[in-house]
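3.2 Worked example (two chains)
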Amino acid sequence: LTYLDLRLNGLNDPQAVAHVAAGIARCQGLKRLDFGRNRLGAEGMRRFAVAITSCAHLTSLELGESRLGPEEAHVLAGALRHRPGLTHLDLRRNKLGDEGAASLAGAVPVLTALRTLVL
């Protein structure tokens, strides 16, 4: 599996996200992941972040319209530090705020392959 599109699936419950994240973590060949338009929340993002750190070949991550705030951005930034090969990151239409943007900005220098950043 190289591309997984889970956008707009109503994945709002942390337990549901945990189960999906466990499956994602086992997809070692995954390159593109679209998880946009799901409401992860802080706990869901913590579980999701663990999964994306396991995807060694991930190059594209879409989390647009996922209602991410500063706390979720901080967790995501930590996970992104383990994905220097990421070339595309879409975070459009989230409410990251100044604090969330600052957290993500701290991860950007590690993302040496990043070509597209959508905020």
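3.2.1 Second chain
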Amino acid sequence: FFVWFWIGGFLLPPSSLDPQSHWNRRINMVLEHDLLYPSAAEERRTHKLKRLIPTPQSYFMDVKCPGCIGISTVFSHAQTVVLCGSCSTVLCQPTGGVCRLTEGCSFRRKAD
């Protein structure tokens, strides 16, 4: 006559109640990454609304005109064609997201 025990959602035979059994050991799980303190690279990879502190992905940048070497401030997701103030050269063209710089233009991301 065998007596079975119901433990943790499992029906176990009496021999499995041995303290050395793998059923009775406490499992210490280790997470792959820290959820409270994610790395900067991991935060950049996640969606802007799923971050620990939601931040936008857009920024302002200084764009140098290839013709007159003048510097203009441009929004990264500009929705209109941006022209140079002094020589009227096209600096960037809008796309669906980040604007496309004209060939020869260089830019620098403005500090926050």
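3.3 Remarks
The mean pLDDT is 80.
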